[in-house]
Design goal:
This is Xaa-Pro dipeptidase. By secondary structure, this protein is an alpha+beta fold. It has helices spanning 3-26, 55-61, 100-104, 131-137, 144-155, 159-184, 189-200, 266-282, 290-307, 315-320, 323-327, 385-388, 402-408; strands at residues 31-35, 70-73, 80-84, 106-110, 123-126, 140-141, 212-215, 237-246, 249-258, 374-377, 380-382, 413-415, 418-423, 426-429. The strands form 4 sheets. It has a 6-stranded mixed beta sheet with strand order 4-3-2-1-5-6. Strands 7-8-9 form a 3-stranded antiparallel beta sheet. It has a 3-stranded antiparallel beta sheet with strand order 10-13-14.
Length: 434
Amino acid sequence: MTDSLDSLQHRHLEALEAAYAQVLERLGLDGVLLYSGAPRHHFADDQEASFAAFGHFMHWTGQADLARSWLLVQPGQRPRLRVHAPDDFWHLPARLPDEAWVERFAIEMASDDAPPALPSGRFAVLGDVSEALADGLGAERNPEALMRALDEGRIRKSDYEVACLREANRHAMAGHRAAREAFLGGGAELDIQHAYLGASRQRETALPYANIVGLNAHGGVLHYQHYQTDAPKVRLSLLLDGGHRHRGYCADITRSWAGPDADPAFAPLIDGVTALQRRLIDRLAPGVDYVALHQGMHEALGELLAEQGLVHCSPEAAVSLGITRAFCPHGLGHSLGLQVHDVAGRMDGSGRALPPPEAHPALRLTRELEAGMVVTMEPGLYVIPMLLAPLREGAAGRDIDWARVERLADHGGIRIEDNVAVTADGHDNLTPEA
């Protein structure tokens, strides 16, 4: 670990201590107990599902896999961490990393997962805890005002957090490069996934989300969840949405590539979506309304569809008739941090809800951008039969070149996604070039 990262982490924790003290004082609380959470057992089995710790616990520790542990935060005192680390010959007990945060905490390595006793005063307990446990501690369970305030504290990232996100992006992009080579070499979806994991140096359960590895038409299933073991007979396209976690912080990158058997119209669409994404990224700055950026994506998609001959109407008509929404049903992006879809994206600074526009319910970020935010920028263009079919009978259907659309149907779709920090004077793209 470099001295510079040590220094950044110390400043991150100093700011976190001050922010918690301010919030707790405002809400009349003497402290808060954060539970990391525990993995779930499969029914009638002793095997556990994949696990990621509670985001506010990770905000202090960065430990995504530290289960059944507790962190007590009291203003003016060292944070007290109780780590569940029983003697066990079935599993390796928890160990703490050589990182700057460890020396700032009072740490107890415990053989059980019981919470620490709370001193007298008014406390809250946050996380996946039962009412009975909270009552036994004499603490308020997940009070809404405190949760909203702490969520808001995570929407802007410290310099340390941005450094972690940048490193996560570096590892993830190494995986993307290897995956592309596996695709062009004729690999099946499973082969591509293995290439990604090997190059990004991670096991599958450590991923911040299940990678999407969609060959051909599978690229048009937005959260495609399988890895076919046999390579397809033709290689039309690959859509790869793959991430990495570094000290708790998540990369979330998507790339699309044309295969050797792709229709000649497909590669220009990838180039068009990539150029569209770059133009939208160039607009990122403090004070920009993300909802307006999302609308700008649809306007640009209308232009691209018209330029590439998929529609025979104006770009404005493609938007107003709902054509662009059928070709891209998801939002432009979301907040990114300790969670892939990070908290506080749909509320303002005072905790007031900011729901997405009725026409764009999938948009996960609806607030004005501020320096320190990290967001994904991920425009897409897909051929999804169930979304396009309803347009055939209406006015929009007359403006769509159905023959051209059907030629591209087996190619699935395109998504180009980068992770970008908003800075005081613009933006900083954390995602390396492919």
